[in-house]
Amino acid sequence: MAEKQPRPRDRTETAKARKRPASRTLLRPQPVKTLKGCDEWPIVRAYVPPEDCWQSTGFGTAGIVRQQPDGRLASSFFIMGLTRGGLMNVFGHVDSDWEEIEGDLRRDRHKMPPSTIGDARMAARYIWGAYAWSLEDDLIWPEELERQHLAIVPPMAGSRTRWLGQFAGPTGVIPGDLYDLVKSIDPLLETSESTPEPLVFTEVTYGVTDQAKVLEKLRSSAPHITPMDQDMDTVYFECTREYNPRKVMPLEPMRSRQPVGTLRIQGGKLVAEARSLSLAAYLIGKVREYAGEFIQFEKTSWSDLDAWLTGPDKEQPTIVY
């Protein structure tokens, strides 16, 4: 990758080196509702990005679920990506129940970065920080975001400078090496989801606690994960997903699904590889979904195109969308 710049001791400058106007829409927009007094409704569940996904890619989903006075549920979920403007999309529910909320999360798990049940205060740190990051990037949000979705999130004192500092500062939730990576590729970034994403070859390593179980789970997870080759001591899998018809035509039109990344299991290790941060987030989500209880996150490494091509048995990659 490009030479790393020293991480600032105090993250008070903008989250990006330049500003560029952009707009964001909310998923399943609803009429704007002012949820008066919702900050006093009890929080019954919170969601945070899984540690392995967030530390490896800067993508994840955070959310808050509160119980309304009538016993029904109100929720807001925030889809985050550091290389996509910080806060990417938001969706939620009012006058809802667990069947609807959990059903939506199950249905959309193939379209959004993973999440896990966690602490409400930590969820608030992610949400307010990603929101501040997006404002520094000049993203424009509709009124519904503040009056309905952010109203459900536990408040954070201070200005957006403080929100950004606790998110991206030296003691923030963004790891220093990931921050340096995002900053190093900043000139290549565009916040629009329709533009190609910079190639960042991402390798995530897990320790395997039960290799037989992991192989069993992965072999039964088609069409998302399918077996490839196997040699004396290594088993390979490929992860794919459906093409998004709203984006450009796939670069490999003869295939029915878009390649996401590969997995290899060898010597008690599971190594996941993808060609971009967002694809790596999707790949991690699938690994967690099918084999999460039998693996332990160990480390992540990144490389650019030149470094990746110097590795063994590498072919020229295609642009990632």
Low-confidence stretches: 1-32, 312-321
Q: State mean pLDDT (0 to 100 scale).
A: 82
Q: Strand count, sense and closure of the main sheet?
A: 6 strands, antiparallel
How many domains?
A: 2
Helicity range: 25-40%
Helix and strand element order: EEHEEEHEHEHHHEHEEEEHEH
Main β-sheet, spatial strand arrangement: 9-10-11-12-8-13
Count of DSSP H/I helices: 9
Q: What amount of the residues lies in strands?
A: 25-35%
* Class per helix and strand makeup: alpha+beta
Rg over CA atoms: 20 Å
Q: What is the end-to-end distance?
A: 20 Å
| Strand element count | 13
Shape: globular
How does this structure look, described?
With 321 residues, this protein is of the alpha+beta class. It folds into two domains: 22-188, no CATH class; 201-309, 2-Layer Sandwich (Alpha-Beta Plaits), CATH 3.30.70. It contains nine helices and 13 strands. It has helices at 51-57, 98-108, 120-136, 143-152, 160-168, 176-184, 211-219, 277-291, 305-309, and strands at 22-23, 43-48, 59-67, 73-81, 86-96, 116-117, 139-140, 201-208, 225-230, 234-241, 258-266, 269-274, 295-303. It has a six-stranded antiparallel β-sheet with strand order 9-10-11-12-8-13. A hairpin with a 3-residue loop joins strand 9 (225-230) and strand 10. Helix 1 (51-57) packs antiparallel against helix 8. The two termini are 20 Å apart. Residues 1-32 and 312-321 have low confidence and may be disordered.
